[in-house]
Specification:
Structural class: mainly alpha
Number of strands: 2
Largest sheet: 2 strands, antiparallel
Helix content: 40-55%
Radius of gyration: 23 Å
Oligomer: single chain
Number of helices: 4
Length: 125
């Protein structure tokens, strides 16, 4: 039961040791202290990053087929993923408290992965 609390705290992103954030940031030699301005600067940075990077990628000189010199008519087969495969891959993920786009940390995912195997086995039967 004692190990349940860290998992629950992780699920709601509540941690005992909270890290303090800086109260200001520097941008173009200007010090910004207003939290809304800081949030807007970070939003602009991250929302424009992909576009700005893509602007620096040169256009292709050839179509994709130019690079496929030896064409083949053979096909491939991929083995199905098993619950054991999922657990094996999940165990290799670095444990972090940061959240993914679904607000799930790798710590929480790894702590709950054993239950996933049980669910898969029910569907397999």
């Amino acid at each position: 039961m004692k190990k349940t609390w860290p998992i629950l705290r992780s699920a709601i992103n509540q941690h005992k040791n909270q890290v303090s954030l800086p109260d200001h940031f520097k941008h173009n030699s200007n010090t910004i202290k207003d939290k809304l301005q800081i949030a807007e600067r970070f939003n602009n940075l991250f929302s424009n990053m992909g576009y700005e990077i893509s602007e620096n990628i040169p256009l292709w000189q050839h179509s994709f087929s130019h690079y496929l010199k030896n064409k083949t008519t053979k096909s491939i087969f991929l083995d199905p993923v098993t619950p054991g495969d999922e657990i094996d891959v999940a165990s290799k993920i670095k444990s972090k408290r940061s959240l993914d786009h679904n607000n799930i940390s790798s710590n929480l995912m790894k702590a709950s992965i054993q239950n996933t195997e049980t669910c898969h086995n029910v569907h397999i039967l």
